[in-house]
Design brief:
Length: 84
């Protein structure tokens, strides 16, 4: 083998190694991106559930307050007062 052939083979092997390394990096980036997207979606769902539960608790508290303060008039007394 001449030195040109050796140089050519070493360049080709270096290019193959670099492309393999790049593919591995791209795959690792893709896996990392998928993992973070999954984590973000799980957190988003968790937050939505928490907000829904909070809204339900508030709605129930407001409903209990209305039932407790209801004076038999409709709409409730706050809106049914007539000022003379």
């Amino acid at each position: 083998m001449t030195w040109r052939q050796v140089l050519l083979l070493s360049c080709l092997s270096a290019a193959v190694l670099l492309s393999t390394e790049n593919r591995q990096k791209l795959r690792a980036d893709e896996l990392r991106r998928e993992y973070h997207e999954e984590q973000r979606n799980e957190f988003k769902n968790f937050v939505e559930e928490q907000n829904d539960e909070q809204e339900e608790r508030i709605r129930e508290a407001v409903e209990q307050w209305r039932q407790w303060h209801y004076d038999g008039l409709y709409p409730s007394y706050l809106y049914n007062r007539h000022h003379i």
